[in-house]
Amino acid sequence: MTAGTTIQIPRFRGEAIVPGHHEYDAARAVWNGSVDRHPRVIARCRGTADVASAVRFARDCDLEIAVRGGGHNVAGTAVCDDGIVIDLSAMREVRVDPVGRTALVQGGALWCDVDDQTQAYGLATTGGIISHTGVGGLTLGGGIGWLMRKHGLSVDNLVEAEVVTAGGEIIRASTHEHPDLFWALRGGGGNFGVVTSFRFALHPVGPTLTAGPVFWAAEDTTDVLRFYREFVTDAPDELMTIVRLGTLPPLPVVSAELHFRPAIAVASCYAGSVEAGERAVRALREFGAPLVDLVGPTLYVDHQSSLDGTVPHGWHYYWKGTNLAALSDAVIDIVAEHAYEATSPRSYAAIFHIGGTVARAAREATPYSGRDVQHTMSIDAVWLPEQDDTIRAAETAWARSFVDALQPHRAGVYVNFLDADDDPSSIHEAYGDTTYRRLAALKAKYDPKNVFHHNRNIPPGTPA
Question: Any idea where the FAD-binding PCMH-type domain is (predicted)?
Answer without folding.
Answer: 35-205
